[in-house]
Design a protein that fits this description.
Layout lengths: L46 E7 L3 H11 L15 E6 L15 E2 L10 H21 L6 E2 L2 E5 L2 H17 L1 H4 L2 E4 L2 H6 L7 E5 L3 E2 L2 H14 L5 E6 L6 E4 L14 E5 L2 E10 L5 H4 L7 E12 L13 E6 L2 E7 L8 E4 L18 H14 L36 E13 L5 E4 L6 E5 L9 H15 L5 H12 L9 H9 L3 H33 L1
Parallel strand pairs: 1-2, 1-12, 2-9, 5-14, 12-19
Antiparallel strand pairs: 3-8, 4-8, 5-7, 6-7, 10-11, 11-12, 13-16, 13-17, 14-15, 15-16, 18-19
Amino acid sequence: MSREHPHLPRQRQPANLPSETSTNSFWHTEPSPLLTAHRSTRNLPQTADVVVIGSGMTGASVAHHLLATSHGADSTSGSKSGLNVVMLEAREACWGATGRNGGHCQPLLFESPHDPSIGHFELANFRALQTLIKEKDIDCEFVAQPGVRAIYSQHHLDEAESALGIMKHTAPELAQMMKLVTDKEGLAKYRIPTATGAVVTEVAARMWPYKFVSRILEDLLTATDLAGTFNLQTLTPVTALAQSQPTDDDPHHHQRTWTVTTPRGAITAHKVVLATNAYTSHLLPTFADLIVPCRGQMSALKPLPSLRGEGRLATSLGFLGDGLDDYLIQRPNERGGHLMFGGGRQHGPSIGVTDDSVLDRETARYLRTRLVQALGLPERRAERACVSCTNCQSDSQHCLLPPNTRTAEFTAAAEWSGIMGFSRDERPFVGPVPAHPGLYLSAGYTGHGMPNTWLCGKAVAVMVAKGFGSQDVEAVVDAASAATGLPMAYRLTEERVRKALLAEDVEALDWAEMERGAVAGRVEEVRGDVNDFLASLQR
């Protein structure tokens, strides 16, 4: 894909609402009957203590930790009880990024070597999910397994090696959970023979995210022992937020409320939580340059023979390199063994895109073919073409290429897109929104939400609950951080916003990375052609 350097606006336009229609995610092939088109009440409630906007992992966590009596009670003690919580969702429940991601939950413990609180938080998030899934016996295909971060460029490998060295001093307890692999035999063992190196950790998992969130929301809707009430309104996009004006008898704005406007009417709420990730700036325009939408693409691939049965993958995989950030898990053999593979952003429009109703053809083709080479599969040269041949659409008798030069590809059971929210400083924004009392945010996960969202949502829930009983915002945030381990780097503050806006634009950073990837890709393509030619001479 040819790329021109972006001519960036001084200020981005706010994000659009989620597309009314969307591509069909594999994770939505078994939708919850209870949640489909669910509206707890025929009419929109006129008032609420708390309105949560968004029904993905973050929104579900906020509601769960506000209302589920067996969770979060210790961290929200002393706050208002019997909260009336309303959740609003523009489309079906969990129809955004959580229902469209890769099902890949891997704490990246080495990516913040100078701030180990981030690695500890991601690890705690992983363990919280693991514990809750076991307690509730949630059938969401959660399987703990080693996580492999395959690295394909020397400078990324050097950075990883340096990070691991730093962590031996800043967080030895995390460093000992990882190892760097660079020898060819070791890389082949992890099914990544063409990688330059890899960071391997025993702490990772694969799961069906939609089924997890569905169960959390279903339990909230059917429980008889909630610490309040829960009302879910799907197919109800929020179009505007407005705060009431201060009054003379409330000089510190403690009693101000929010009006949440939808096409079905408006709700007046004391507190509002934005669990809106990529779409945040639609309701909070000042965040247009802080959280930028980014379209990603996913595929569910039917396993080739070498990946079936005992040949299946034993780890989850991430692929890191110049312009490369792909991710892969494999579903259980008894449920199809699909390879859930996503990425390939270097092949199509991505940054600034909020439309998940379309697929990029080049990206789709990349996702169907990349793993054959990346995993060093024996099917790399298909003897029989072919519905599995990328070079033409003819059958094997009429294929234009000699049998040993036909490139195999996977058959996709499903292909879809989804919208991520990229943070300008690459960290989620979590906490009360400055200068907007009663408004809270947890968003901007930059494609790394699974090891972050659940506890970020819990942190916001603690802030909201304690905020009813205290006007000391800093003390409330401190309490939430103590209860969850929320890193200081995630806190939403005026100072952080100012610093972030001085950093380079998300799109400019992404363009530079993708351009490096395009150059590396052309070199790799030429190298592959040469190797293929030399191999053909030996046959």
